């Protein structure tokens, strides 16, 4: 399966190079085991600074957010986008709670270091909002783009989900 990086494709696609990698790189260190924490509150929100009015935020990555190659784990991308989009949607809809109905993420590059987050409204209806969430490097280059659709929970029924 292609990784999007020629170097990683070479390592994982060739048995000789993979054996070298697994014996000399992976075999050197014991796996890191982190203490059990509440995933959203402790792992994500403790590292997320939100500027509500501007729809911007900053996420400071540490080791527990990364994959073995030091880049942010794809699931972490999704959680950061969902948390940021949720807060933004509540503010834009003037609602106490919102429900995420749909989410589409395009992973463009590996994310490392401090991540800047921008939210913007794509479409806003009475009780529904479509939000674009961009994860960027400090120089403005985009890591990933998410399109999220939220409903105000006061209008959610079984038929709308």
Topology overview:
Blueprint: H1 6-13, H2 15-24, H3 39-44, E1 48-51, E2 56-60, H4 74-93, E3 98-107, E4 114-124, E5 128-136, E6 142-152
Antiparallel strand pairs: 1-2, 2-4, 3-6, 4-5, 5-6
Characterize this entry briefly.
The chain is an alpha+beta fold. It is 27% helix and 31% strand.
Structure overview:
This is Thioesterase domain-containing protein. It comes from Proboscia inermis. By secondary structure, this protein is α+β, with helices and mostly antiparallel strands. It is built from four helices and six strands; from the N terminus they run αααββαββββ. It has a six-stranded antiparallel sheet with strand order 1-2-4-5-6-3, covered by helices on one side. A hairpin with a 4-residue loop joins strand 1 and strand 2. The longest helix is centred in the middle third of the chain and has 20 residues. The chain is elongated, with a radius of gyration of 19 Å. The chain starts with 5 loop residues before the first helix and ends in a 9-residue tail after the last strand.
- Strand percent estimate: 25-35%
Total DSSP helices: 4
Question: Which fold name corresponds to the CATH topology of the largest domain?
Answer: Thiol Ester Dehydrase, Chain A
In total, the number of strands is 6
Organism: Proboscia inermis
Protein name: Thioesterase domain-containing protein
Pfam family, one: DUF4442
Please describe the structure with a list of short key phrases separated by commas or semicolons.
161 residues, alpha+beta, Thiol Ester Dehydrase, Chain A, 4 helices, 6 strands, 31% strand
